[in-house]
Amino acid sequence: MSSVTLYSAPEIETGRLLLRGLAAGDFPVYERFFGDVEASANYGGPLTPGMAWRRLAADIGHWDLRGYGLWAVTEKAGARMVGVAGLYWPHGWPRSELTWWIAADARRNGYALEASRAVIAQAYDAMGWALVETHMNDANTAARNLALKLGGQVIAREMFPDGVERNVYALPKELA
Predict the structure, then answer these.
(1) What's the confidence (pLDDT) of residue 174?
(2) Could you tell me the pTM of the whole model?
(3) Topology of 12-171 in CATH?
């Protein structure tokens, strides 16, 4: 029998946000986000409540499987969870990625940019990553614009296991 190492997400603070480990109590935010056809369209949604629960469970478990994962993005003022941001690498996919989603009612506040900057710094400085990357479907202009705001440069275009060809962006350690 192999030993199991349990990982927990370290807390990360930014000017307005606290990034903390995900928990079962975050399910209502997952359920609303993944149940919203438009909001979740670029993130595998819409999902039934049962599938949203499984997604939350997978996101929590990713920490134990990979030693890194997604954080709940919460507002410091009031502690409202507004989305997730983190590092993700599903089994069978060719690359890890910086990923994020922000609830529809919390968008246009710069939360994805602020949280992504914090996650990138954590990956390079605390976790010792040599390269942080992201990728998205070509139609996801909001994600592409965020990658460019983060200083992202296209380093590859490749086919992914879901049959979609995507640009891969390298995200620099020093952000603009």
Answers:
(1) 76
(2) 0.94
(3) Aminopeptidase (3.40.630)
